[in-house]
Amino acid sequence: MAEAKTKKIYHLGTGRRKTSVARVRLAEGGSGQILVNGRSLDDYFTEDKDRNAVTGPLQLTEMSKTLDVFISVKGGGITGQAGAATQGLARALKQVFGLTTPQAMADGQAEEGGGMAKKLRDSGYLTRDGRMKERKKYGQKGARKSFQFSKR
User: Fold this and answer.
1) Which of 7, 17, 15 is nearest to 93 (CA)?
2) Which residue has the higher pLDDT, 130 or 50?
3) Does pTM top 0.70 for this prediction?
4) Which helix (H) or strand (E) segment is 77 a member of?
5) DSSP 84-137
């Protein structure tokens, strides 16, 4: 007799920073592997600060050994991509735990994982860093730099 295959449950999250966009997919019941654009985390992010930023939400929620993480990231630089992956991972984890809504609290049906989503928010993982590169203005050398002014 063939064993029945169980479908894996996936949770999705999208993160953005500067011009980088990361699509994160979490698979429950995994071994804890993290793949970024088909490569391992250590191969893709070579600096420790970027690796720590990406794994931060997993370590905060203590889910690093039970979930498989697949990240597809585009645009920007390496640090921007790490920031986007961090936010996407936190959003996907929020979906795993569920967020407590005021309506659910009023009905007395508050979800248990609401505290974990609050932890993610308080740690700053769910906040988007809105700083972008300022655009070049017409008639100027750059965003702020202007041509030298001559009175005569």
Assistant:
1) 15
2) 50
3) yes
4) none
5) HHHHHHHHHHHHHH----HHHHHHT---TTHHHHHHHHHTTTTS-----PPPPP
